[in-house]
Amino acid sequence: MPLIGVARGIYLIGGPMLTHMLDANVYLVLSEKRKGVVIDSGTGLGFENMLRNILELGINPFKDIEYVILTHCHIDHAGGASALYYGLGVKTVAHEPDSLFIREGNPDKTLAKKLGLEFKPSPITVNLRKEYETLEVDGMVFEIIHTPGHTQGSISVYFEIHGNKVLALGDAILSEEQTEDFHALKRSLSKILRYDFEIVLGGHDYISKNGRAFIEEFLMKLKVK
Ligand SMILES: [Zn+2]
Ligand SMILES: [Zn+2]
User: Fold this and answer.
1) What CATH number is associated with residue 81?
2) How far is the CA of 23 from the centre of ligand 1 (A)?
3) pTM above 0.85, yes or no
């Protein structure tokens, strides 16, 4: 299946139906001048399909993609980082301590062992340590928010594009079994709700156009527990 347009300037270029059944969603965000930032990388097993989707958009994958922002270290999100870094020269961005697990290819923390896969280690170009950081690419501003809970180094990304206010969440909103630290997650979600956004790009099934209500509802469920 080819890529999917999510909103103007945002494309789903990877995911279970698009690239490989184990891949989390991979988004490509394009500036007016067609410079790109990729959010998450998939496992790497569907890399060739992802490349085909990038080419289909008329983007030169060697020249036009500046960064891949890795929402956390799990292999379905970060396993393709090394292919983007070594294969295409894309700079990698991740938050500590997940950035360390990606660099060392930690088989436990990345869940590679659990899935019977091998995590290919990748250098991290931009190693985030703070609660809030900003990344600018060709007039686009990405606000990176440290939102631990699912993993210690999970991040969410807020940006505006063509009038749309967007939040990419990675796996921040998943079930209890898939959350390392529930207290941290509650704080993270409260932090996220200070942002004004409509579109939520999830790591797996959901791409919600009514994102606020979606997160508020999830937070309510957590609070009543
Ligand atoms: Zn995950
Ligand atoms: Zn995931």
Assistant:
1) 3.60.15.10
2) 11
3) yes
